[in-house]
Design goal:
Chains A, B: Keywords: Magnesium, Metal-binding, Transferase. Chains A, B: Its cofactor is Mg(2+). Chains A, B: Belongs to the FPP/GGPP synthase family. 2 copies of one chain form a homodimer. By secondary structure, the first copy, chain A, is an all-alpha fold. Chain A has a single domain, classed as Farnesyl Diphosphate Synthase, CATH 1.10.600.10. Helix content of chain A is 74%, strand content 1%. In chain A, α2 packs across α5, α3 packs across α7 and α9 packs across α10. The longest helix of chain A is centred in the middle third of the chain and has 26 residues. Chains A and B meet through α5, α7 and α8 of A and α5, α7 and α8 of B.
Chain lengths: 339, 339
């Protein structure tokens, strides 16, 4: 990859980067949002009701934004990327609905989750509907290549979710397994979302792969930061929920690092709270102290930064311009959330 | 449709018809079974473990058999139908896994269900995996037309399942809604399974549509009989489980007919047991007596026979031969189960 035009980390805060990306593709995103609402309709009224709850619940639309911007980065001037961005969001929404059932989550984006409000059963089935509908829309688009990328990403997501379930409550989980989980459950869809930008623009394989790398490393960074935030005292001070992963016994990098570096007594603590799920009211604070003692949050964010640098490097395959700058800044957006 | 060569109802018992259909496409079915085992593999060991439990649990493989036989009926001599039959079975298996979670079923085909054995969470996620894998395999096959048929069937299945959930425990459900449920949850996949037989053989639209009609009406008949069997005293005498639909408060045709024809006191009974789900130990027997009193089982099977006759009529678009005879006899197999 060329190093002629190095891309610097954005100096600005993260939220500005998301606003800038959104502004850059605003017309496309508005078309995409209309399409999402239009295509989630069904004569079975509960389907759009439940789907609207999660689709309208104020998500960032990060994944469809990435598809829209990646297509423009590749010089695409048509309209297919709008429909494919909607497909990406449908697949994402389907996985959120199923995740919340699997995690028994009561909240999603600060509001009652669909499963809490409508029950687990319709959440499973409406997830299935949105997933099937995504494939119907891809067929409408007509690219077997896109269908191949998004169907492969979908099975990889499911593999990541199953592996997460298998490693849950198991402190013998390795860092390699943890990485496999987050590359499956998060990075695969980011990679597919950006890669199809090059596909609709009919760009050479090298650009497809560069965008795949950008999305994959960005998604990995995004998830690492998410996993750090779940133990962040700063988040708590902002009034945000922390400790979801802790309560579910998910084995994330902050825990793995603190466990690895801890004393035998501390490992006993982790086994009790995460494996046996025997948690008292002070245990989350104790876990946060251990994670802080071993610099595990800092290191998790450093690893995210490492992946973020790879994402920036991958963008160098493309000419400078507003799209490349916006996509570079989004790397900082994903990481700066950890501040 | 030609009436030159009427097809008579099979005189033989149903099980013979299934054996005959299986024998007719035995080599293809064996290839299909190998492909199913091969393609459900994953580095995440729980996926093939759980999938094997349901895939190997002695299903009839009725839907893939229909795809294989329909392709041969259309004179197809290649191998694509084997892979597509596996896709159909993957989609079916995914819906079974999710159904059992939604219905909280402890048994499936007389064995512990996957959700009872492995838990709800992996059942949801492995269903997602199999569904995604089906689409990966269709992309491998490379027909956008097949992808269109099976993605549309998949969203229709989900719509049927959601509608079933909405009408559950609601004795104001209409016969039209009931038909919409079974056409979604069962008939849509039967129709797709047979239709793609004509698609791989590159046959004219009229034959595609004839096979679609055959599958759709056969699937409707199959589900009507299933719904009758759940209240059948004869089944009970054979040691088979009855009353699952009753316990879940599903509104099926035998109930709808008995409710419609019942006295106000009897309707009160149905409301108590199905809407309020206030069921005592003698209530299933009482329900069976009411259903018998109004001939509701007999009439449900008569309706199935009516759909079965439509399935037979649709087959007349094809020349006589062993495939057409086997597919005609399978209609009787679906209905004769009610004896």
């Amino acid at each position: 990859m060329s190093v002629a035009s190095p891309i610097n980390r954005a100096a600005s805060g993260g939220e500005d980067a998301l606003a800038a990306l959104t502004a850059l593709v605003r017309a496309d995103l508005e078309s995409c949002n209309r399409l999402i609402v239009d295509k989630m309709q069904s004569p079975v009224a509960l389907i759009p009701q439940l789907a609207a709850h999660i689709v309208a619940a104020g998500g960032k639309r990060l994944r469809p934004l990435l598809t829209l911007a990646a297509a423009r980065l590749c010089g695409y001037r048509g309209n297919r990327h709008v429909l494919l961005a909607a497909c990406v969001e449908f697949i994402h929404t389907a996985t959120l609905l199923h995740d919340d059932v699997v995690d028994e989550s009561a909240l999603r984006r600060g509001q009652a989750s669909a499963n809490a409000l409508f029950g687990n059963k319709p959440s499973v089935l409406v997830g299935d509907f949105l997933f099937a509908r995504a494939f119907e829309l891809m067929v409408e688009d007509g690219s077997l290549k896109v269908l191949g990328i998004l169907s492969a990403a979908s099975s990889t997501i499911a593999e990541g979710e199953v592996l997460q379930l298998v490693t849950q409550n198991d402190t013998t989980t390795t860092e390699a397994q943890y990485l496999q989980v987050i590359e499956g459950k998060t990075a695969a869809l980011f990679a597919a979302a950006t890669r199809i930008g090059a596909v609709v623009a009919d760009r050479p394989l090298a650009e497809e792969e560069a965008l795949d790398t950008y999305g994959r490393t960005l998604g990995t960074a995004f998830q690492l930061v998410d996993d750090a935030l779940d133990y962040s005292a700063a988040q708590e001070q902002l009034g945000k929920t922390v400790g979801d992963d802790f309560r579910e016994g998910k084995i994330t990098l902050p825990v793995l690092l603190a466990f690895e570096r801890g004393t035998e007594a501390e490992r006993g603590f982790w086994r009790r709270v995460l494996e046996e799920r025997d948690q008292g009211p002070d245990d989350l604070a104790a876990a946060q102290r251990l994670i802080a003692r071993y610099g595990a949050l800092h290191e998790t964010v450093e690893r995210a930064r490492h992946y973020g640098d790879q994402a920036l490097a991958a963008l160098q395959a493309f000419p400078d311009g507003p799209e490349r700058r916006a996509l570079a800044d989004i790397v900082e957006f994903c990481i700066a959330r950890a501040r």
